[in-house]
Amino acid sequence: MKLKKLFQSAVDHGIDADPRGRKYIEKLLKKQSDRMKKLEGKEKELFDEERTWNPYSDCRVLHGTGEEDVKTLMIGIDFETQEVLLADRLREKGMKIDCLMTHHPEGRALADLDKVMTLQADVYAQAGVPVNHGESLLRPRMDKIWRAIHADNLFRTERAAELLGFPIFSCHTITDNLVWAYMEKNICKKPFDDLQEIINACLEVPEFKYYAKKGNPPIIVNGAPSNRPGKIVATEFTGGTNGPEDFIEKQSQAGVGTILAMHFTEKEVEEGRKHHLNLIQCSHMASDACGVNLLLDKLTKEEKNLKVIEVSGFVRFKR
Questions:
Q1: pTM for the full predicted model
Q2: Is residue 229 within 8 Å of residue 278, measured between CB atoms?
Q3: d(CA 54, CA 217)
Q4: Positive or negative, the Cα torsion across 22, 172, 169, 94?
Q5: To 5 degrees, how large is the angle CA 269–CA 105–CA 182?
Q6: How do beta strands 256-261 and 231-236 pair?
Q7: What is the pLDDT of residues 84-109, one digit of tens each?
Q8: Distance of CA 62 to CAs 11, 24, 27, 144, 166, Å?
């Protein structure tokens, strides 16, 4: 499969799992296309045309023409210069590697991370937080994330890949959408008598079980194993990064009893205690690996000969 087709397929699967729904995404893309047509001068020159078909600014081909044939992917949760050097060393030892895939964004995909955070308002709306509250709370947090990223040295990884001749792409919110939908369906919608039963159910997920054996299991960071869960939501799984801590209180007011997350900030844990919410941290790396595996299950149905080399926290489980 050509890299361009592979990546476009990944974007399509991300849209299918998006909390906002495909129709809403199509409206967003049309607005971007209409906006591009009206631009002139410097604004037109700097406009990111990918926004007219790819709604995920933290997912993109970082280096490559798109015409490369991809039969073997090296996949990591993170890809920095050391992983690119590892790929080059393995290639020297005779291993075939056609392309690199990172979950967490690098380069332009990281520069634009804040722009995917708007979908958090829709995730929280499904948990009962009015969308106008969500959008109002998100803007200061998005600005803070943008300022922090703006100061980073963003392009080391993609430059290393370019110099060593590796195409590379990132799939962040795409796979986060997939694991969010998976957790909503397989955990949040199921009846549980207490938090320990939720932990046990998480440990049936192969990625969570694998990481638990490595000493990184799902953990209760607020609440007791015997606590009744009430309404369960997975509001900390997609949307770029953690949302504002104020969302903890808003979810409590909306009747949420238990929040599942890839991880919580210490401030979120403090807010959880203050507002009597059960908080379960499911393991960041395990959650990311689950999302990547869900995408690979779909891609390998389209390209049956696709092979995967696992590095940097990723472990392959097929469903």
A1: 0.95
A2: yes
A3: 34
A4: negative
A5: 60
A6: parallel
A7: 999 999 999 999 999 999 999 999 99
A8: 15, 26, 26, 24, 10
